[in-house]
């Protein structure tokens, strides 16, 4: 079976700075793949390259057998590739429910659909999605008034509302309290198992990664440092050095 | 209904304020009757009232991009001016009678304005934030100067429009109703659009355009469509206003960025941008105050207007609708119910 997402030799430069260099990775259908690395190692740059924010300089990005490295952001999103942001982005001056209503898949949307009332099933599904992430009591509340953790959950539910095939999560547990992290991990596993969404997760928290991911890639200085199962990565000397600032070559 | 209760109900609802209570329906009927009878009851202010409907239309159309979509345009006056000139040319050159000429001209004005939005939209709407505001400001100035230098449309000396054929006084009545119908059509169309995915998408673009793109929204298509909606109503408004005044001056009427162009922004902000009724309320208050300034503070009316604009910006940054909502929120929190 082919991989859902496959990167081959992806290089991205900003002027003289090589942000990611010759990175190849595979995300299989239905898997949960983790990506770790110290700050500034190029994880988010790679994410932005995948979703089309910056065109890559070299290499190819294949999504379900199709080259997406030249497409723009909304086109890629409409193929079923959703992402959440490290800084958590929601539509602050809209209610939680309206945040979800606008997040429906836009792939088949024509001019007429913009001016046609949404079917009742859509709002039923939006409410169901809010219940799924535990925000059903907040549906009329403005998204800006939610707590940080609640905004993370809202952003996650928005991504799910768009019926993605692949979900890219940029540090989903950063800034979330430890109790909530547990339920977030359970939720992400459920999304993967029940809804069949493939996940690619950037994470600093090793405990989260080892509980969540089947396979992990580690980046350092824009290059792929190591890859393997979570136990392999946790035992890797180079990874520990990169994180703890050990002797650099 | 108790206004307190109504404010709370509005706050709790997830839909924008479009649901009409029976009482407001009654008020609407009474208001409609008053509006229809106005030219007979207060004949002396018919022209001022016509301009009130124009101001309502200005504020409503500005709010489509400025309030709902977060794109502060200072160039919407371009569509108004293009509409005024296109209609005048059609009336001058097509050789139809007065009313057929006016009807054709108004239709062509709408088409030309929408065409202009389609042509300018892709380039201008690629600018964001302050750059869009500055870019559209330049657009208005460029059009005014171009019109003032083009002999085909009378250049700096402007264009005179054909005389109204009816009895004296009937001209004011005719344009009063025409402008009222146009402003009402604008309000109803926008209300209809805002309750659909179009409204959701505009608000999403306002709150975070990058996020909207990341969700796969056709952001460019929505933005251009929104500007076309503005143009669709501003073009005919220009056509009617040219005929109402009887003379088109390129800088003082058609592309009057410093007056109409700024007023439409001020009115929408005063009433509360991003709401359906805010611009209507803002336009009414602004127009009334302005007429009072003209009447009682002659020679100082521009100064008073400038002070009013400053007071609005400082005291009502979220507009009257925003102020009412905040008050409603404070009251409901004082009553002990959870603040959303």
Characterise this structure:
The complex is a heterodimer of chains A (249) and B (340). With 249 residues, chain A is an alpha/beta fold. Chain A has one domain: Rossmann fold (3-Layer(aba) Sandwich), CATH 3.40.50.300. Chain A has 10 helices and 10 strands. Chain A has helices spanning 43-51, 73-78, 96-101, 111-114, 120-132, 148-161, 178-194, 206-212, 230-234, 237-244; strands at residues 3-14, 17-28, 32-36, 58-63, 66-67, 81-83, 166-170, 198-202, 215-220, 223-228. In chain A, the strands form 2 sheets. Chain A has a 6-stranded mixed sheet, sandwiched between helices. Chain A has a 4-stranded antiparallel sheet with strand order 2-1-4-5, covered by helices on one side. In chain A, a hairpin with a 2-residue loop joins strand 9 and strand 10. In chain B, 46% of the residues are buried. The longest helix of chain B is centred in the N-terminal third of the chain and has 27 residues, at 98-124. Chain B has one domain (47-319): ABC transporter involved in vitamin B12 uptake, BtuC. Chain B has a two-stranded antiparallel sheet with strand order 1-2. The two termini of chain B are 23 Å apart. Chain B contains 15 helices and 2 strands. Chain B is mainly α and 340 residues long. At the A-B interface, helix 2, helix 3 and helix 4 of A face helix 8, helix 9 and helix 10 of B.
């Amino acid at each position: 079976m082919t991989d859902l997402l496959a990167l081959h030799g992806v290089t991205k430069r900003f002027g003289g700075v090589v942000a990611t260099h010759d990175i190849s990775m595979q995300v299989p259908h239905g898997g949960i793949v983790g990506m770790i690395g110290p700050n500034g190692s190029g994880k988010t740059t790679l994410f932005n390259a995948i979703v089309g924010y910056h065109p890559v300089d070299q290499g190819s990005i294949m999504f379900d057998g199709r080259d997406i490295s030249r497409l723009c952001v909304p086109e890629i999103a409409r193929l079923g590739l959703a992402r959440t942001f490290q800084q958590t982005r929601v539509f602050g001056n809209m209610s939680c429910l309206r945040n979800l209503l606008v997040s429906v898949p836009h792939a088949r949307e024509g001019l007429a659909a913009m001016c046609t009332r949404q079917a009742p099933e859509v709002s039923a599904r939006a409410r169901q999605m809010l219940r799924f992430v535990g925000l059903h009591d907040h549906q009329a509340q403005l998204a800006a008034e939610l707590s940080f953790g609640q905004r993370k959950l809202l952003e996650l539910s928005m991504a799910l509302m768009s019926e993605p095939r692949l979900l890219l999560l940029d540090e989903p547990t950063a800034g979330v309290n430890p109790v909530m992290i547990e339920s977030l991990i359970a939720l992400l596993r459920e999304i993967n198992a029940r809804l069949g969404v493939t996940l690619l997760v950037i994470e600093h928290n090793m405990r989260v990664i080892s509980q969540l991911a089947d396979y992990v890639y580690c980046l350092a200085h824009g290059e792929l440092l190591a890859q393997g199962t979570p136990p392999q990565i946790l035992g890797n000397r180079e990874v520990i050095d990169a994180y703890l600032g050990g002797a650099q070559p | 209904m108790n206004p307190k209760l109504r404010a709370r109900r509005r706050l709790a609802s997830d839909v924008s304020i479009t649901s009409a209570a029976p009482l407001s329906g009654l008020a609407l009927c009474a208001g409609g009757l008053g509006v229809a009878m106005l030219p007979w009851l207060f004949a002396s202010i018919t022209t001022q009232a016509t301009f009130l409907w124009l101001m309502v239309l200005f504020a409503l159309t500005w709010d489509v991009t400025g309030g709902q979509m977060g794109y502060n345009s200072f160039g919407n006056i371009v569509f108004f001016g293009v509409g005024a000139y296109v209609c005048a040319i059609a009336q001058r050159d097509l050789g139809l009678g007065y009313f057929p000429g006016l009807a054709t001209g108004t239709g062509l004005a709408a088409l030309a304005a929408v065409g202009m939005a389609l042509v300018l939209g892709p380039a201008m709407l690629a600018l964001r934030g302050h750059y869009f505001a500055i870019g559209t400001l330049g657009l208005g100035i460029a059009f005014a100067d171009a019109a003032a230098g083009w002999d085909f449309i009378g250049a700096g000396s402007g264009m005179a429009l054909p005389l109204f054929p009816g009895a004296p006084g009937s001209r004011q009545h005719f344009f009063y109703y025409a402008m009222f119908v146009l402003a009402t059509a604008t309000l109803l169309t926008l209300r209809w659009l805002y309750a659909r995915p179009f409204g959701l998408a505009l608000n999403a673009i306002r709150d975070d355009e990058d996020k909207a793109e990341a969700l796969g929204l056709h952001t460019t298509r929505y933005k251009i469509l929104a500007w076309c909606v503005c143009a669709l109503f501003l073009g005919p408004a220009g056509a009617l206003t040219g005929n109402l005044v009887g003379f088109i001056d390129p800088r003082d009427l058609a592309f009057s960025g410093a007056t109409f162009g700024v007023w439409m922004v001020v009115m929408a902000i005063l009433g509360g941008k991003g709401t359906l009724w805010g611009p209507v309320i803002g336009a009414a208050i602004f127009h009334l105050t302005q007429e009072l300034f003209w009447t009682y503070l002659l020679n100082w009316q521009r100064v008073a207007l400038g002070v009013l604009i400053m007071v609005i910006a400082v005291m009502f940054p979220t507009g009257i609708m925003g102020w009412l909502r905040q008050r409603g929120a404070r009251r409901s929190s004082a009553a002990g119910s959870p603040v959303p």
